[in-house]
Structure formats: structure tokens, C-alpha cells
């Protein structure tokens, strides 16, 4: 019987203004991250700062 693989993350569509996207791309490049990785880091950091639960 085939096991179902657990999904570790959930995808969603995010619309950003071109100027904001350009800044995120620059920031990601400076941190040697992908844009997706940078956005995940930004969200996790905001959750920690506002005392929300993060792994």
C-alpha cells in the first residue's frame, strides 16, 4: 500500500507591488536566499517579534 507523503508547507498566491517585489528580491540576494526563502524568513521573524508561535 502506498503511503501518502506529508506536505510540509502550504502554497498561496501573493500579489505585491512591483517596487516592493524589487526590494524583496534585492534583500534576498544580499542574504543569499531565494525570494521564497526570504519571504518565509520575514514572516517567521514578524511572528517571533509579535510573540506568535513559530517553530
SSE arrangement:
Layout: H1 18-30, H2 35-49
Describe the structure in your own words.
The protein has helices at residues 18-30, 35-49. Helix 1 (18-30) packs across helix 2. The chain contains 2 helices and no strands. The N and C termini lie far apart (32 Å). The mean pLDDT is 88. The chain has 55 residues and is mainly α.
Distance between the first and last residues' Cα: 32 Å
Write the element-wise H/E pattern from the N-terminal end onward. Answer: HH
Tally of helical runs: 2
Largest sheet, if any? none
What percent of residues adopt helix (DSSP H or I)?
40-55%
Please indicate the percent range of residues in DSSP E strands (runs of 2 or more).
under 5%
- Please identify the oligomeric state: single chain
Mean pLDDT, as a whole number? 88
Anisotropy-based shape: globular
Helix/strand-derived category reads: mainly alpha
Number of strands: 0
Q: Segments where pLDDT lies below 50 for 5+ residues? A: none
Radius of gyration (Å): 15 Å
Key terms for this structure?
55 residues, mainly alpha, globular
